Amino acid sequence: MDMLAAMRIYIRVVDCGTLSGAARELNVGQPAISERLARLEEHLGIQLLTRTARSLSCTEAGKKFYELSINTIESVDAGLHAIKSLDTSPSGTLCIAVPICFDDYIMSSALLKIRSIFPDVRVELRFYDGQSESMSDDVDLMIRVGPTKNERLMAFNVGTIHGLLFCSKEYLEKNNGIQQISDLEKHPFINQPGFSSGEKLSLVNDQGDKAQVMINEVMAINHWGAIFQMIKEGQGVGLLPNVMSLSASAEKTLVRIFPGYRTEKSVPVFIMLQERLKNSLKIRNALTAIKDAILGCNS
């Protein structure tokens, strides 16, 4: 039996709390996970998990094996990393998990910097919803939107995401411009529920001056790409995140309105990694490149 592989699967099952969740994380079928766990328990001669129809929990032996598995995997990975780090010219693959809301320009800037420093490194980007608390073993860095409670991963705060106001150039021309913030209530509003209620929008500028306005919410969408498209189609005024602002500004049909203001509500952005990788030259430079790119759009 490949005990290290079995330990990795067991850790993921316990972390996810369900077999189906672990199967999704590992991108394998649930029956395969069940079979590997059964073989592991048979090999050890002990029951590790107590299963019910909807959940599972560790037995006392399972808790001890979980701790042993984490320590073993971290020790092995740290040893392998130490050997790899002897190479002063990093190569191999750098895998980064990126939220789908992130601007092409941000990641392009980061990738160009990484490639200029380490031309022999192959970079792989994996886009996801940005909310995951867990990170698969083959991912080196994960950009997460929002607070994290995962104590097994190191988390570096690299900025915030807040909403900026945009509309299409055609919409602005048809409505003879939008002169004051209070005018927003007269226009259909495409809202991102995480940044305002369905009735009021709270804004703040760089000087700390605040403004609150009633909005006429005609759409509430929790996907930035769809909001982008609705604004582009002239459906009204809407919010786009600062991490998409470069693409929005490059889109000649879109106009940012009240550029001195942003939503008062914001969410933190973290870059997460496993502690064993914290001293990797490749990881440190990638982290800095991504951080600089994100900070560059925090306006």
TrEMBL record:
<dbReference type="InterPro" id="IPR005119">
    <property type="entry name" value="LysR_subst-bd"/>
</dbReference>
<dbReference type="Pfam" id="PF03466">
    <property type="entry name" value="LysR_substrate"/>
</dbReference>
<keyword id="KW-0804">Transcription</keyword>
<dbReference type="GO" id="GO:0043565">
    <property type="term" value="F:sequence-specific DNA binding"/>
</dbReference>
<keyword id="KW-0238">DNA-binding</keyword>
<comment type="similarity">
    <text>Belongs to the LysR transcriptional regulatory family.</text>
</comment>
<dbReference type="Pfam" id="PF00126">
    <property type="entry name" value="HTH_1"/>
</dbReference>
<protein>
    <recommendedName>
        <fullName>HTH lysR-type domain-containing protein</fullName>
    </recommendedName>
</protein>
<dbReference type="GO" id="GO:0003700">
    <property type="term" value="F:DNA-binding transcription factor activity"/>
</dbReference>
<dbReference type="InterPro" id="IPR000847">
    <property type="entry name" value="LysR_HTH_N"/>
</dbReference>
<feature type="domain" description="HTH lysR-type">
    <location>
        <begin position="1"/>
        <end position="59"/>
    </location>
</feature>
<dbReference type="InterPro" id="IPR036390">
    <property type="entry name" value="WH_DNA-bd_sf"/>
</dbReference>
<keyword id="KW-0805">Transcription regulation</keyword>
<dbReference type="GO" id="GO:0006351">
    <property type="term" value="P:DNA-templated transcription"/>
</dbReference>
<dbReference type="InterPro" id="IPR058163">
    <property type="entry name" value="LysR-type_TF_proteobact-type"/>
</dbReference>
<dbReference type="InterPro" id="IPR036388">
    <property type="entry name" value="WH-like_DNA-bd_sf"/>
</dbReference>
